[in-house]
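HOLO CASE FILE
Compound: zinc ion
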Amino acid sequence: MSRFSHSHLPRETFLDFESGEDKEAIRCFQHCDKKTNILCLSQIPRICPLCRQDVTKTESLIPPFRLPSPLTKAKQNPFSVVVKPTIGNFLKDYQNSSNLHIGLTNSKGIVYDFDEHGIHVGSSSWNLCVTATLIQNITQQTLNVWDNLLNQFSQQVDWSPQRYDEEQHNCFTFVMEFFKFSQLLEAIPAATSKKEFIKEFLLPYTQKTKMYIAMYRQIAVKGYLCQPIH
Ligand SMILES: [Zn+2]
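Model generated. Tokens follow.
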């Protein structure tokens, strides 16, 4: 059971917009007021919260469309750093104090990550993650080299469960050490220090994500969110 429900409105007051894996995506539409966006999830409110008209019987100024989300599937993000909460997912479970887990994707978006159980390859739990693409212009050569290096590197004894240490030798160490090992990212200053990396690569994404999560949670409680356009 999700801990969010449309507690303010009965189930039948919503129309199913779409089902399946995109259920969590935020939709936006304008019904009667071009200065107010109405945000919702996969079920759009049947009654417009602004004019109280039935949205199935009246025309919307802008029909529902999906808002771009900062959370994507690792599979869609090759050559990237991927981040998600250690436990659960960003939308439902993440709190400011939550621990985060970090990994790297290969050319096919398969995630390599390190934790107390050692290296994981291709874990399926990376469906809602923050991603930062490391290499933009990929040549066939880079592609092969990256995948080979990532394979080689993850097989090193450094990444056995026995070597894991929550503070000193963790998922983040795996990522930063791979940057050194691969030497492919020498031109990126952020790849040389943890502090720089967080500032340059992760913070811009995490701010956007926090706003998106806050919006998602408000909608999940109420069923919709009216957002005035300034
Ligand atoms: Zn309306």
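CASE NOTES: The chain is about 25% helix and 20% strand. Helices lie at 140-154, 171-182, 194-222.
CLOSED: yes
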